[in-house]
Design goal:
single chain, 3-stranded antiparallel beta sheet, binds iron/sulfur cluster, Arc Repressor Mutant, subunit A, Transcription Regulator spoIIAA, 41% helix
Length: 407
């Protein structure tokens, strides 16, 4: 698919909530914690006023660019994703007001997916019943690992029991789609302990599991935005942790996931994501499909099919502009177009189980890479659609080698 020259109206909206109880040393998200998040010097009130203004300003811009909500060219959002940070720390009535504002200005289609990221600690998961009443349909729980000592190593505040309690509370609150985030390739965690943690996660009976290898950025930030430099203590922690990671053990874990999760009823639908039927993340799928997704909040990144745009990650700068009634500072970059754009789309599509149409990829000039993937056991025919190819298990383990031949 060639990326069109025209921007497309948003199908999803990402809303960034930057507050956390404390900072985890491996975290690269745009986060403020401690006194900036709670107590008399909390930035929460100013943030909430500013984000409501940004929702209004971005919606007005969308009205001008794509037509008013409800017109043929401007459909209500299919997804809203409140990510962070720890969005479950928002006071329930303010969460409800934010969702209402998005519904009012951007629209939320019937059956829209509304995801809230939550941390499992008793003082972090928030009022889950109130969140459901506010319109949340999907909860994404940042568990990371269900092993007490590994959680301590990671600097997390919660315990495995907190994860169990949060899942139970979410179910009893009526959350219809429940996801748990896990990490692989953790420093100093032997394979058996990691596999036991995975079994504990499976026993929770949630609808969706994401498992990403722990990535420790040691060099300069490459996101393009102006987030704060990593604190020296976190840099030292990362250096120690990186030395305690083990590529072979990480690959063994990935291989284990790909046999253990399907046996437990989870289908892989993207390299790092597995779901029971009907529970794939619709919001994240928009990113992998290179669809148009708007974004609000400090450091939030948006894409309209033509341009990538991001907000300043500096809470002061972001908030000050909005208080003046102006859009926050940030940056933008024309997305890859032409062959490079097609290559980017192909790589994203190949991450997903549905794979790509083989003939179309060959026509677009990627025949050599596809043939290389097939002859080296990284690509195979899709099991239910002979016109498509998808990654094999080996391909999921070695995807970067194939993607380097495409991009
Ligand atoms: S809780 Fe999540 S967002 Fe907050 S600092 Fe830790 S990893 Fe980052």
């Amino acid at each position: 698919m060639i990326v069109g020259a025209q921007p497309a109206p948003p199908r999803g909206l990402y809303l960034h909530v930057p507050f956390c109880r404390s900072l985890c040393p491996y975290c690269d998200f745009v986060v403020v914690a401690g006194a900036a998040a709670f107590g008399p010097r909390s930035r929460m009130g100013g943030y909430l006023n500013a984000i409501e203004k940004e929702i209004d300003l971005r919606a007005t811009l969308a009205d001008k660019t794509f037509g008013t909500l409800g017109s043929a060219s401007r459909q209500p959002l299919e997804t809203l994703y409140l990510g962070g940070g720890t969005p479950s720390l928002l006071p329930t009535e303010r969460l409800a007001a934010l969702i209402e504002r998005v519904r009012d200005r951007f629209g939320l289609a019937p059956g829209a997916e509304v995801t809230l990221e939550a941390n499992p600690g008793a003082d972090e998961r928030g009022d889950l019943r109130g969140s459901v009443q506010a319109g949340v349909t999907r909860l994404s729980i940042g568990a990371q690992v269900l092993d007490t000592s590994a959680l301590r190593t990671l600097g997390r505040r919660h315990t495995p029991d907190d994860v169990v309690a949060t899942v139970a509370a979410a179910r009893s609150a009526g959350v219809t789609s429940l996801s748990v985030d896990l990490l692989a390739d953790l420093p100093d965690l032997p394979f058996d302990a990691w596999a036991a943690s995975l079994d504990r996660a499976i026993a929770l009976g949630v609808d969706h599991l994401s498992v990403y290898a722990l990535t420790l950025s040691l060099g300069p930030d490459e996101t393009g935005d102006d987030r704060l430099a990593t604190p020296a203590g976190a840099v030292a922690w990362r250096e120690r942790a990186a030395a305690a990671q083990d590529e072979e053990r990480g690959a063994q874990e990935l291989e284990h996931l790909n046999s253990r999760l399907p046996a437990a009823g989870y289908d892989w639908y993207e390299i790092s994501n597995w779901a029971t039927p009907g529970h794939a993340s619709r919001h994240n799928t928009l990113y992998w499909e290179r669809a148009s997704v708007a974004a609000v909040g400090p450091g939030a990144h948006a894409f309209d099919g033509v341009t990538r745009r991001w907000n300043s990650a500096n809470l002061d700068a972001w908030e000050a502009a909005l208080q003046q009634g102006e859009l926050p500072p940030g940056g933008e970059l024309a997305a890859e177009s032409g062959t490079a754009g097609v290559a980017e789309g192909l790589v994203l599509a190949l991450r997903m189980a549905r794979g790509v149409e083989r003939d179309a990829a060959v026509r677009d000039g990627f025949g050599d890479a596809i043939a290389w993937g097939e002859s080296n056991g990284l690509l195979t025919q899709h099991p239910t659609d002979a016109t498509r190819v998808q990654l094999t298990l080996r391909g999921r383990l070695l995807s970067n080698e194939l993607f380097a031949r495409i991009a």
